[in-house]
Amino acid sequence: MKVCKFGGTSCASADQIRKICDIVLNDPDRKVMVVSAPGKRNREDAKVTDLLIRLAREALDGRDTTSPLLAVADRFAGIAQELGLEEDFQALVIRDLSDRLSQDRSHPGRFSDCLKAAGEDLCARLVARYLGEIGHAARYLGPAEAGLYLSDEFGNAQVLPESYDNLSRIADFPGVTVFPGFFGMTRGGDIATFPRGGSDITGSILAAAIRADVYENWTDVDSVYAVNPALVRNPHPVSEITYDEMRELAYAGFSVLHEEALAPSFRHDIPVNIRNTNNPTAQGTMIVRHRANFEGTVTGIAGAKGFSMITMSRYLMNREVGFALKVLKILADEDIPFEHMPSGIDSISIVIRRDVFPPEKEKKVLDRLQAELGLDRISVEHGLAIVMIVGEAMARTVGVTARAASALAKAGVNLEIINQGASEISVMFGIREEYCNYAVKELYKEFFLK
Ligand code: ASP
């Protein structure tokens, strides 16, 4: 059995919806499809989810909601009409959204999630209806009925463990089950959404729950590439990659799959296949536990901006038991997750994402570190980027770090941090943010074009 998730561009128009239905009907193993809300048809277009977020905001601010409401209704009505559906989707969407708008607004996050979820929910209903109308056994199944339960962290929810058992029988249905991505129900009966792009997570959960043979993630690129295609022309396509490699690359900005989406598939050993709705004959990229084929030492290169680093030093720090513990305790008290902790003999640095370290927290944390740890020096540097080279084969190849460092040195990029992960499948460099794209391109030249 295969679970197929179709992203926003794959659901953006009537033509795209015909394509995804063809894909599903072409293979009897494709029994469960997860759909996103209609995304952009072209660069200037709006994503339905963005329209719904606007709708929620206008409502919460007490402004007139007619324009975003009609924009969403028109979008669905246009698709339904082009697909030749009998039902009046314009009226159906207006009814559905008006009902959501009439919900309690005292908790803005909960209210917004209820509206955000409408894009996926209506899209799944529409696709199921279309499959029925062209003569195939299909049903819409939603999280409430199927038992997909999430934590009540609105906009950032996590799956609750009982969901897997609840969902395990969804493929018993003899036809195609169409399931909306992106949201689930809290134990209290409210709608909660995953973070943006979260339909990938829904697909992965369903694939794990039914123990699918493969989780197919249909998007708009032929495969995963060794480097961001926006930076390099005709980048090297990756036919096979491990979960671990993918995870490390996602961390440093690879955006093919949502960062949290691999975990359910990984835990249940379900291979993930990235495929292209607009070119279904391309075999795409397989994400697997173990790889058999190694084309080169490095599998991928990525870079992410937006990091800061606190550096602390104190004479004879290495002799003091529990120093790092005290540093981390202060960060934990302030609810700041840390990313990396390079250390020297009498100094230690903490790398943090800038977005979780706003100026008001910065002052408080620095004051506490200084006062509670008796430091000789403390400084903070913003505007750093993390560049990573990743590859399973690196663990048994000598000299990869040297080659990368020397390529960056030749290109005039100053290295502020070097960190080889404990897993040995990646090497990370901390550099100034303005050099990020340039460094990624130089590393790509070194490992893929030489
Ligand atoms: N529609 C949602 C978003 O735009 C979720 C998704 O497409 O995966 O974020």
Helix fraction bin: 25-40%
Total helical segments: 15
Average of the residue pLDDT scores: 94
Strand content: 15-25%
CATH superfamily of the largest domain: Acetylglutamate kinase-like
CATH class of the largest domain: Alpha Beta
Question: Could you characterize what this model shows?
Answer:
The chain is of the alpha/beta class and 450 residues long. The chain has 2 domains: 2-288, Carbamate kinase (3-Layer(aba) Sandwich); 300-449, VC0802-like, CATH 3.30.2130.10. The protein is 37% helix and 21% strand. The protein has an 8-stranded mixed sheet with strand order 3-4-2-1-7-11-12-10, with helices on both faces. It has a 5-stranded antiparallel sheet with strand order 14-13-15-17-16. Strands 5-6 form a two-stranded antiparallel sheet. β11 and β12 (285-288) form a beta hairpin. α12 runs antiparallel to α13. The radius of gyration is 24 Å and the shape is globular. The two termini are 42 Å apart. Bound molecules: aspartic acid.
Topology of this protein?
Elements: E1 2-6, H1 14-25, E2 30-35, H2 48-60, H3 66-82, H4 89-101, H5 108-116, H6 118-133, E3 138-140, H7 143-146, H8 162-167, E4 176-180, E5 183-185, E6 191-193, H9 199-209, E7 214-219, E8 224-225, E9 237-238, E10 240-242, H10 243-251, H11 262-267, E11 272-276, E12 285-288, E13 300-313, H12 323-333, E14 347-353, H13 359-373, E15 377-390, H14 400-410, E16 417-420, E17 426-432, H15 436-449
Parallel strand pairs: 1-2, 1-7, 2-4, 3-4, 7-11, 10-12
Antiparallel strand pairs: 5-6, 8-9, 11-12, 13-14, 13-15, 15-17, 16-17
Helix pairs in contact: 2-3, 2-5, 3-4, 12-13, 14-15
This protein binds aspartic acid.
